[in-house]
Please model this.
Amino acid sequence: MADFSNAVQTAIFNRLTSGLTPIAVYDAPPHQLDGQPYTQFPFVTMGDDTLTPFDTDTSLGAEVTCTIHIWSRYKGRKETKTIMASIYNLLHRQASALSASGVRFVDCLWEFGEVIEEIDGATRHGVCRYRLVLETS
Model:
């Protein structure tokens, strides 16, 4: 079985890390010490993914949805929306810019995006999801 999930995470992580500088991109969000203020906003984290087979008679493939989270403490939604737009420009219809060992990216499509206010009242949380089609190379 091809490792489609890790291929997608690697490709998206690398694309966002190089394209969103100086905004940090994490596989897992950083943790703060109890009682200490967290000042490293904004940042982006990789979220959950879902895999569905997309095989043909001649190749193995997968359709993968990947969720990306944006975290901001900007007073308002503008910073989060601006970062989401940057992610859109880096990923939507940019399959040829994505690469990972052993796979070829066929397509990358934006599915949805939303910005919510976290319960602390200070943190804005952007969520966006992309659908990728890939096959073994």
Observations:
- The longest helix spans residues 4-19.
